[in-house]
Design a protein that fits this description.
The complex is a heterodimer of chains A (about 270) and B (about 70). In chain A, about 50% of the residues lie in helices and about 25% in strands. Chain A is built from 11 helices and 9 strands. In chain A, strands 1, 2, 3, 4 and 5 form a 5-stranded antiparallel sheet that branches. Chain A has a 4-stranded antiparallel sheet with strand order 7-8-6-9. In chain A, a hairpin with a 2-residue loop joins strand 2 and strand 3. By secondary structure, chain B is an all-alpha fold. Chain B is about 45% helix and about 5% strand. Chain B contains 2 helices and 1 strand, in the order H-E-H. The chains are: A alpha+beta (about 270), B mainly alpha (about 70). At the A-B interface, strand 1, helix 4, strand 5, helix 5 and helix 9 of A face helix 1 and helix 2 of B. Strand 5 of chain A pairs antiparallel with strand 1 of chain B.
């Protein structure tokens, strides 16, 4: 005998027109729409046991579960995005019933419409810059007169003093490399920002997370007009040409659902 | 002209996680699920990944001594 389990309403995104779902496998995902006052929420029913607080705590520790569910979340929003502007919601936005979702649409409706108005004909692109610090240090050595000078001094010094100078040299190189990292990542960000409507700098992710040998030095997102995407990508290519031989590598991905550009006003969130 | 030369559909899980778990609109639904401890989730993923690697290494290594291979 099987108990009929309670289901929850999982919200993926909100749009301002009913999307075509031919691209997404809506029958597999059991997607449906809740439309209210000119807005359309894309949702599906999920099992309560999987997504309630207890269940989610357990499932978030399960790599395979996280992978599958986060990918589904992203795939569904990308499918909707193909035919409509979307406001993507954070993973795990859940409601008890369709009516409570509708009440949320009622409460936030005007703000959602304003956000969708802002997002029209624009795309989010992500740019992450990484730096191979050792390679950068190598290119720094030949560029700085102060470092070259200390190198000459080391060659003509007795071992004791040379040891001391070597330490000083390493310090100078590290400082100089740091300055270059700041300069290059800031310059790249500013140049890309000029081509976009809005830009964000996000938290750098540590190596344990990126699983890369080099360090992340910029994690950024840009909201770009669809007509400007070509220019943006040309700029990325230019930056790559300038910086890649200095130890930097630039990862550009997109178009993404505008996860970074849908912030609700703080006031509203606090009052809710 | 829409140049998609560098659009990578082979985006890493990291890129997706960085957005889906960290960003996106947050409203107070009926059930407020906090996945705010994303760093913990990342670390959790990392630990899981490395434990899989360790298991594979162990499996690859010949077992010496009196220990019986588990069945």
């Amino acid at each position: 005998m099987q108990m009929i389990e309670k289901q929850l309403v999982y919200l993926y995104c909100v749009t301002n027109k009913e999307p075509k779902l031919t691209e997404t496998k809506d029958s597999v995902d059991n997607l449906y729409f809740i439309c209210h006052r000119g807005l359309c929420a894309v949702a599906s029913k999920v099992e309560e046991s999987e997504f309630d607080e207890e269940g989610l705590k357990k499932n978030m520790a399960d790599l395979e579960w996280v992978k599958a569910n986060v990918s589904t979340h992203e795939r569904i929003i990308e499918g909707v995005m193909a035919s409509a502007d979307v406001i993507p919601f954070k993973f795990g936005t859940l409601f008890n019933t369709d009516n409570s979702l509708k009440a949320m649409l009622e409460e936030y409706g005007e703000e959602f419409k304003a956000i969708l108005g802002k997002l029209g004909d624009k795309e989010e692109w992500g740019v992450k810059i990484y730096c191979d610090t050792e390679k950068l240090k190598g290119s720094v050595i030949n560029g700085e007169s102060e470092i070259l000078q200390i190198e000459n001094e080391i060659n003509s010094s007795p071992p004791g003093r040379a040891f001391f100078l070597e330490k000083k040299k390493a310090e100078l190189i590290a400082q100089s490399a740091n300055a270059k990292i700041n300069e290059y990542s800031q310059e790249s960000f500013e140049l890309l920002k000029e081509l976009s409507f809005e830009a964000r700098i996000n938290k750098l992710l540590p190596k344990e997370v990126t699983e890369r040998e080099d360090d992340m030095v910029l994690n950024s997102a840009f909201l770009i007009g669809k007509d400007e995407v070509g220019d943006f990508i040309n700029m990325i290519d230019t930056l790559k040409m300038h910086y890649e031989n200095k130890g930097f590598s630039i990862d550009c991905t997109g178009p993404w659902p505008p996860y970074n550009f849908c912030g609700l006003s703080k006031q509203k969130v606090r009052n809710a | 002209m829409h140049n998609v030369a560098i659009t990578s559909k082979e985006v890493t899980l990291l890129e997706v996680l960085d957005r889906v778990l960290n960003k996106g609109v947050v409203v107070s639904g009926d059930i407020v699920i906090s996945v705010a401890d994303v760093d913990l989730i990342y670390l959790g993923l990392k630990v899981l990944l490395s434990s899989v690697e360790t298991m594979e290494q162990l499996r690859g290594a010949p077992i010496t001594g009196p220990m019986q291979e588990a069945t």
